[in-house]
Amino acid sequence: MVVVQVRGLSSAKRLYQTIWYQCSRTITSNRLIQEPISRIQTTLDSEMVGKSGIENLDLSWDSLLTSIRSSAPHKAQLVLERGLQKLQKENEKNHDIYLELIHICAKIQNPKTAMRVFTLMENQGLKPTTTILNALISAHISSGNTITSLSIFQTMQNSDDYKPTSHTYNLFISSFANYGNSKAMLAWYESKMNLGFSADLDTYEAIILGCIKLKRYEEANRFYKEMLSSPQIKPNTSILNNMLMGLCEQNDLDKIRDFLETIFDHKLEINGSMANKLVGFYCELELVKELEWVLKRNTNLDLYLDLDVVSQIYNGLIRVYAKLDKLDDLEYCIGRMLKDGVSFRSHKDVEMVVCSYFRGGAYDRLDVFLEFIKDSHKLARSTYELLVAGYRRGGLYEKVEMVIKDLDTIDGKNTLV
Fold first, then answer.
1. What superfamily would CATH give domain 165-268?
2. In which region does residue 356 sit, left (phi positive, over 0), alpha (psi from -120 to 50) or beta (all else)?
């Protein structure tokens, strides 16, 4: 094998980049998928030799391998096998390379190959480290092999050189949370605390998720408040999403309001996923006051709210006002929305507004609305069809002809009769 000499790089890093980066850089997942199995190794060899210019390029090997595995798992295994052969041939002595491979095996749920990587590392004379054993535990947990994971943990406990860390306990807390085993999840949490480790963001993310999945809402709330009391920990979007999901499942409006208050008070972000859940929940119950409060509360604090979130809230309000045929509130809301630089998210929302005008026989107001939004929203064909049907029911045949003419101008043909 020809190893490219790149100034400033260690031999180990140079070898690693030559093997793995050149795969990810020059071989697309589509090409490997299309190649017959008999040519996988030949293709890899041809692409990994004689390359240059790799010093400042980013690796994307894990995403490549993940992509291949989703449609051609056997070929992904062949790629891994070839990588192992190269490492063995070069007698590689760098822990980081083996660690990265084990991480990849965990990501693609391949614990057997992870063990082979670990065995190869030991055969090359390298001693295990806590980080590598944690990665090995993760590889087995990812495939549901708890027994082997526990065996590795016991090995770490009995060692003087690679004792379990806070992260080790987080792996098991997360694992049992995903399995829905509350007893084991809480037992690992208590063990971690009893050993003097502190709960970190990963700990809270795992245990709050587990509590929500098991519908242990009070415990989830307790851990959430405990986390907020720590100035060093800021809840991430996953924790906020799970907490909101649990509160909506309980249909507890007061707790949802309190939860949102803590988000605003701590200047946390309401992301798109949370907004979708919140707007859907409030819209189903037709709680326009709550949606209005979210917008107002945020505005009063002068916080930055993502435009997509603002759009979801506004369109949620419009859907409810249209459903309730509250035309004055509806038009006021639309005016505020457009003034804030937000437009309709979907032609279905526009059509709900149109239907509300038709139900109220407010044809003149409908004309004003259509004129008002024409610069910010392009009407869908289904909306034109709705307008034609509504005007016909109202006996407004001149308007029918105008709508058909407008559509004919837009798409070049007239099929509305």
1. Tetratricopeptide repeat domain (1.25.40.10)
2. alpha
